[in-house]
Amino acid sequence: MNTLWQEEGKKFNPLVERFTVGDDYLWDTDLVPFDVDASIAHAQMLKSVGLLNAEENTSLVAALEEIKVLHSQGNFKVRQSQEDCHTAIEQYLTEKLGETGKKIHTGRSRNDQVAVAMRLYSKHRLQIILNELSKLTREVFSFVKQHERVPMPGMTHTQPAMLSTVGLWAGSFVESLLDDAKLAQEALGHTNANPLGSAAGFGPPVFIDRLHTTAALGFERPVVNAIYCQVSRCKNSEIVVGALAHIMSTLARMANDMVWYTSAWFKFFELGDDMVTGSSIMPQKKNYDVLELVRARASMVYASLYALQSLGQKMMSGYNRDTQLTKVEVMKCFAAVESSMEIMKLVWEKLSVNHKQLTSACGPEIFATDRVYELVKKGMAFRDAYQEVKRHLNEVSKEDMEQALAARTTLGSPGNLGLEYYEILVDI
């Protein structure tokens, strides 16, 4: 079957077809329901401006709803020869409805079709991300409250530094996730604009009611400028994946800390046998592969972000085929973030705390700064107290950790985590 643009009877070089289409048609399967929704809104708008009659609109909407059902059943496929889901949908309508099916493309281009489908897709996936992010944040916050006062050596430069707590360590992820949620909300806000009706990027030479489709599709506003409707596709992809990258950065820090703290060198935390893998040669091994893979996936998301940033800078204003490659990067990143959040939520649920090992790891050296401030409280200048303790480090002894924690009353410190600041936010 010919593409939408191909003249009947003309052959298309198969190598060119394979190269230009690539695996885009496979990824487009996920866009089908969103393109259908946009097509329904478009058909209803065409009726409202007199470009379709009531019967044509009814037939088109019914056939489009059929496609959604077929897709949900796994029975609507996009073929390589069709290039994309937009062609597959239009050809289905034409085969089923004849001349009426051919009218669905009035006033639009595949350029604005894919732009609006990707925005609808991203809106949907961002809402899922925000929901899962909320679940993960609540899980980590629950862990914080359970282990708020468990002593733990605070680390700087990968060396023991000062007295900390498991609550302070885990609480840093709560606040980071809350910031990530704000960025995801901002990305959702940017995505919530309608490019449909811009056609190829110059508007169609017939009146299209863009405010009609904007309202019908639940967008907050239209993307006004027709050229920017095309150009903004790259920018929106960058913004969306940028927000996802921040989430992955937080997850990677979680995972990396846990890789260290579950190791034989620390043994601060542990996961059960149902959460770890083994070795084909070393029978004693317990490998925390889930953590390593989360850490690695963060790097892959950042690689996608760089690809999007680089790609968007090198095109003349307007649509260019380069933007086809943004789709796969966005979709891959959503999949990576969703699966990583899901596994990290399970990790926090299952993570056990080795109180004895944590307490034992709090050696005398982490109380050196406490000793400095004991001298400061007695009137000695800080720098003199610092030098005094530094000269006699071998005399610093391990202190009562409960008392040491109780003395740390500054907001956000181990003795005063300020959890009340998170209580309301975590429940959002």
From TrEMBL:
Q: What Pfam families has UniProt attached to this entry?
A: Lyase_1
Gene3D superfamilies according to UniProt: Fumarase/aspartase (C-terminal domain) (1.10.40.30), Fumarase/aspartase (Central domain) (1.20.200.10), Fumarase/aspartase (N-terminal domain) (1.10.275.10)
Taking every annotated instance into account, which residue ranges of this chain make up the domain Fumarate lyase N-terminal? 35-301
The EC number of this protein is: 4.3.2.1
- Could you tell me the superkingdom of the organism this chain comes from? Bacteria
GO MF annotations in UniProt: argininosuccinate lyase activity
Pathway involvement of the protein, from the record: Amino-acid biosynthesis; L-arginine biosynthesis; L-arginine from L-ornithine and carbamoyl phosphate: step 3/3
Gene Ontology CC annotation, any one = cytosol
InterPro entries under this entry? Argininosuccinate_lyase, Fumarase/histidase_N, Fumarate_lyase_CS, Fumarate_lyase_fam, Fumarate_lyase_N, L-Aspartase-like
Q: Which GO terms describe its biological process?
A: L-arginine biosynthetic process via ornithine
Listed A to Z, the keywords are: Amino-acid biosynthesis, Arginine biosynthesis, Lyase
PANTHER family listed in its UniProt record: ARGININOSUCCINATE LYASE (PTHR43814:SF1)
Protein name, entry field: Argininosuccinate lyase
This chain's source organism reads Candidatus Magasanikbacteria bacterium GW2011_GWA2_45_39
